[in-house]
Amino acid sequence: HGQCLTMRALSQMPDALPLTADENFAYGTFQGQRSGAAWDFDSVTGCVCDSAWPVGLSAGHSDLPQYFGADCSLERCESGDDPFTRSLDETDCSNASVPGALCHVDCSNRGNCDHAYGRCDCYPGYHGTNCDRLIRNGRSVRLS
Q1: Are strands 139-142 and 133-136 parallel, antiparallel or unpaired?
Q2: How many CA atoms lie within 13 A of 126 on its CB side?
Q3: Which residues, listed in sequence order, are joined to residue 127 by a DSSP beta bridge?
Q4: Closest by alpha carbon to 7, among 43, 37, 36?
Q5: Does residue 81 carry a pLDDT above 90?
Q6: Secondary structure letter of residue 9 according to DSSP
Q7: How far apart are CA 37 and CA 78, in angstroms?
């Protein structure tokens, strides 16, 4: 669920982690000065994992990709806002990056994520693909 590339190639990708807002970043630079290729420029590799949602620091982009891990074999669960924190949207990363950027919150903080399958195991009383629904009197209630 991804592709493995050299450090040089990864440094030019906007969705490779760690994310950076510096569009002029090049692997092997120091304090903005490029003194030649780093020794591992084309010998060390890393992986960029696939994602069904856009990854980056722009509005509408998530801070984390869908798949992760050294070999991109683990999958994040569906993200959502915690249904009990109405005055706070945990998925809003505007203060951390740019307005409209999204923070990934597995299972709306109301369940545990099974990263082998990318599915939420909701805490008792919660359900939904991202655990954003509450069960009250036998009925499904969405709080957000």
Answers
A1: antiparallel
A2: 19
A3: 133
A4: 43
A5: no
A6: H
A7: 40
